[in-house]
Amino acid sequence: MNDDGRTAGSAIDLRHLAEQTFGNADLEAEVLRLFLKQSRDCLDRLSAEPDARVAHLLLGSARGIGAKAVAEAASALEAALLRGADGGADLARLREAVAAATAFIEVRLGGRG
Questions:
Q1: Distance between CA 61 and CA 113 in Å, rounded?
Q2: pLDDT tens profile 14-73
Q3: Gap between the Cα atoms of 39 and 19, Å rounded
Q4: What is the pLDDT of residues 6-18, one digit of tens each?
Q5: Which DSSP string do the residues of 46-99 spell out, in sequence order?
Q6: Helix 88-109 and helix 25-48: axis angle, to 10°?
Q7: CA gyration radius for the chain?
Q8: Per-state percent for the chain, helix, strand, coil, to nearest 5
């Protein structure tokens, strides 16, 4: 583990996650499951109709669990949409970040996701 609480290549800052869930493994699992559901829902909604509010919702969720790459990509998409851009490249980046976070979470949950 690095000094910042992340393992090399980790999609989630585990130190931040532990702080948010008070070190409670059951709460951590519940929060991660909620993120999986919400991130899928947000990506579906963004694919159907790009909306800065939905990107902002995902940004907040990602920050809450320490998914820095997801938060950065959601922030970039939100900014692009607010500028009136289509955000296609930013949405693609967000999908990749969510996929990495999802894979990490599924391993973390040990198939209980």
A1: 17
A2: 999 999 999 999 999 999 999 999 999 999 999 999 999 999 999 999 999 999 999 999
A3: 21
A4: 444 689 999 999 9
A5: HHHS--HHHHHHHHHHHHHHT-HHHHHHHHHHHHHHHTT---HHHHHHHHHHHH
A6: 150
A7: 14
A8: 75, 0, 25
Can you tell me the distance from the alpha carbon of 35 to that of 57, in angstroms, rounded to the nearest whole number? 11
Q: Kindly state the tokens that stand for 45.
A: 């909604």
Q: What is the pTM of this model?
A: 0.89
pLDDT at 3: 38
35 vs 40: CA distance, rounded Å:
8
Which residue's entry shows tokens 């990490």?
104
Contact 31, 20 (CB under 8 A): yes
What does the DSSP 8-state code read for residue 38? Answer: H
